[in-house]
Amino acid sequence: MRQAVAVALLATLGASACGRGRPADPNRVDRDDAIVYLEAAAGAMVWIDGLEAGTVRQLRGGIALEPGAHRLELHQDGFHPHYQDLELAVAERRRLTIELAPVLP
Description:
By secondary structure, the protein is mainly beta. The chain has one domain (4-97). Helix content is 0%, strand content 48%. Residues 1-20 have low confidence and may be disordered.
């Protein structure tokens, strides 16, 4: 059964992120953060800029990123991977709904 989970991909300013995804702390969201809301299968593995960030379920609190260009990937056994390039602006809000296509036998 497909579970959909809303995930906020939080883009934050600051050198600590170094352009790589890391779990976001909801108590430390800056007003300039860009937020991308992702609805996808809860068990799908999320990759940001070529680095494994965790499953959609594990990242339901969001992923902090620096504003700018990022590559989002979703992978799940039995499904074709999904790739999407994002350009995140300061204070941007975006909603993405991703449904992975099953691999046919």
